[in-house]
Amino acid sequence: MELSGLDLGAPPWAPDSPFARAVREADTLAGDLVVVIRIDCPGTWLEPGGTYRAEKLFVVQVEVWGGTLLVATLETYSDAWLTMDTRGREQPEVHALNAPRLAAALDGISALLGAPPEPGDENRYAAPSTTGFRDLRAEGPAYDDAWGTFETLDRARLLDSRLPGSEDDYEQIADGPVRYLAVRRDDRTLGFVWAAVDDSAAGYVPRTAAGDEAFDAGAAWITALREAHRSGLTPLAALQDAVRRPAPPEAGVIARGSHLEAPSLDALEELSGRY
Fold first, then answer.
1. What distance in Å separates the CA atoms of residue 164 and residue 223, rounded to the nearest whole number?
2. Which top-rank group of organisms is this from (predicted)?
3. Computed from CA positions of residues 40, 267, 126, 53, in that sequence, does the dihedral angle turn out positive or negative?
4. Domain boundaries, the chain
5. Residue 71: band (very low, low, confident or very high) from pLDDT cuts 50, 70, 90
């Protein structure tokens, strides 16, 4: 039995939370089974300029084997705990603010489970340790720019998986500055609809910290851009059309105000990936 994408509910551990319901369902099962429960955990990371929220800062996975063996795994989706970010740049202040929080969380989990943490394997971004992550500033990470090498492609694949194939897409690569509009729901930014200043390309960039909602909204905005392309609009005209176009609920809304401008699509990708 496997249950994924759960959240803890509000308040955490409430009897009617998705997690509590999953635990009750697992308790009804009989036999030599493996039960796997994955819980998406929102949270905040700190920077000298403020506090930022991610809808999936951690994922907790609990595996119960035959009702006797329990394995708990903690995954993180932030580089705030690292001495170097995913582009290989040192971030001592960010590390100093956040690494002790992760170490305290690991101590708490160890006390709860009665066993010390076992670090996972080193990967393209970092080397886990019993207290968080090793300091890689002397040896350097596995890749100088893991974000540019892997993450932008992974995000594109997640977005494409929500869309049917089409030949009505604008060019997705921009060589110069881009204009963009923020897509919001309630008080959160989900992503950015953009067009190249030279009118050569247009697309949508999901805000990673917004979680799956960013990609669900992106599918709706990419669909709208495809309709604009079929209508013969240029990329900049399609961006202007997005302000007036009624959007389905899952798409969020375009934040009112003037267009913003980034020096490059790469700069907008980095903005959306971190904040």
1. 9
2. Bacteria
3. negative
4. 2-133, 146-274
5. confident
Q: How many residues does the chain have?
A: 275
Which H or E run includes 225? helix 212-230
Cα–Cα dist 52/267, whole Å:
19
Nearest-angstrom CA–CA distance, 20 and 6: 10
Q: CB atoms < 10 A from the CB of 171, how many?
A: 11
C-alpha to C-alpha distance for 77 and 194, rounded to whole angstroms: 25
User: What's the pLDDT score for residue 67?
Assistant: 62
Q: What is the mean pLDDT of residues 183-211?
A: 93
Q: Does an H or E element contain 160, and which?
A: helix 152-160
Tell me the pLDDT tens digit for each residue of 203-233. 999 999 998 899 999 999 999 999 999 999 9
For residue 271, give both structure tokens: 């903005």
Token look-up 């308040």 returns 11
CA dihedral 172, 249, 238, 230 (to 10 degrees): 80
Apex 188 CA angle, 182 and 190, nearest 5: 50
**Each residue's pLDDT tens digit, 240-260:** 988 887 777 778 888 776 689
3-class secondary structure, 265 = helix
Peptide bond into 11 cis (omega under 30): yes
